[in-house]
Amino acid sequence: MKCWDLENPINQPTGSSPSPPLPLTDTSICQSEPPTMRLVGWRFGGRCMQRSQQSSKRSSRSVEDDKEGHLVCRIGDWLQERYEIVGNLGEGTFGKVVECLDHARGKSQVALKIIRNVGKYREAARLEINVLKKIKEKDKENKFLCVLMSDWFNFHGHMCIAFELLGKNTFEFLKENNFQPYPLPHVRHMAYQLCHALRFLHENQLTHTDLKPENILFVNSEFETLYNEHKSCEEKSVKNTSIRVADFGSATFDHEHHTTIVATRHYRPPEVILELGWAQPCDVWSIGCILFEYYRGFTLFQTHENREHLVMMEKILGPIPSHMIHRTRKQKYFYKGGLVWDENSSDGRYVKENCKPLKHRPCLTKGLQFHSLSLLRTKRKTRQMTLQDLFSPQCQRSSEIQLAATHHKPPYLSSWPTSSTCALQYVC
């Protein structure tokens, strides 16, 4: 596939101060054609409605922002004469996500992401919208498991994106299950889907750059409670492990400027820490870390500091290649070709006690058939996955059984070749 051409974003003020409040019933800002932006995902669709006589159903209070630029909204508020807020789904630095009923589509449930009324967040949102538009153009039937945007609008300075209402993200489910690991068949199926989605993105010269359990959502997070006799406790088991990859706020095309630092700390590859430049292999590293976390219930690299992070990588995966050490500008971490690290410090003792070579972990060598080590190669050009390696016949059977249990078998299970090399091929 050819690289997607980016559209020029519509010029709008990018100041950091919120726009002045306007009446909720004013729809003059409604736009028929979207500009461009970047954001998270659920799927949805539609155009802005014109002012209608439904305005009597809406609250007549003025639009109000808090001191940080978040839209103040309450249950029962309406946006664009169309979306009725019925619940809160979460809040973050970017803004908030609310559950709405879409009265233009038979009161279907949607998740509406409302961006803060701050210039830099509006600009980031325009960039993500552009990415989401291109994803939808290339994957109209949602075969590649990325969240699809189908509506967006500017509400008094707040960029808003509507998506299909999905379930909990995989980290939230793990947390609510007291960090009990996912069963191996579940991990296999999620791994299969993650790589399927990533293959699509990378073929279209797009790197996600921020893959982590929080950005992977279950389509439906309904669960059953089972008793684990081995652990003498109850555990939640999700009924359907179908997932969607979300949050394209940091996604970057191959031809775009690549910022120096990408990826959330725990899922960040060594080339980013060492500022050697990055490309699509950084997503593969993140997947390796994610799958370990699914299978064990805790992060592989539990750290918040670069030097310690690099030491953990060496303890778990082996020495950092000499060519990376010679090329990096971060020579402060090294001396005579080796990491500078005090093993007798409290941090040093922690790393020594808790970071064991991955290949020596019996729980992984016996059970984890998709070889996490192949996803965590320090050398970028060898950090590649083949479907034959990742999806063994046993893994394929597990995925098909899981899907059969949910009465849903996406076409990619039969159409995606199992003997060819996955499109995640990398150049150093």
TrEMBL record:
Cellular component terms (Gene Ontology): nucleus
Positions that bind ATP: 113
Keyword vocabulary terms for this entry: ATP-binding, Kinase, Nucleotide-binding, Nucleus, Phosphoprotein, Serine/threonine-protein kinase, Transferase, Tyrosine-protein kinase
InterPro entries: CLK_kinases (IPR051175), Kinase-like_dom_sf (IPR011009), Prot_kinase_dom (IPR000719), Protein_kinase_ATP_BS (IPR017441), Ser/Thr_kinase_AS (IPR008271)
Domain Protein kinase: 83-413
Subcellular location per the Swiss-Prot or TrEMBL entry: Nucleus
Region (Disordered): 1-30
EC number assigned by the record: 2.7.12.1
Family statement: Belongs to the protein kinase superfamily. CMGC Ser/Thr protein kinase family. Lammer subfamily.
PANTHER family, per database record: DUAL SPECIFICITY PROTEIN KINASE CLK3, SERINE/THREONINE-PROTEIN KINASE DOA-RELATED
Descriptive protein name: dual-specificity kinase
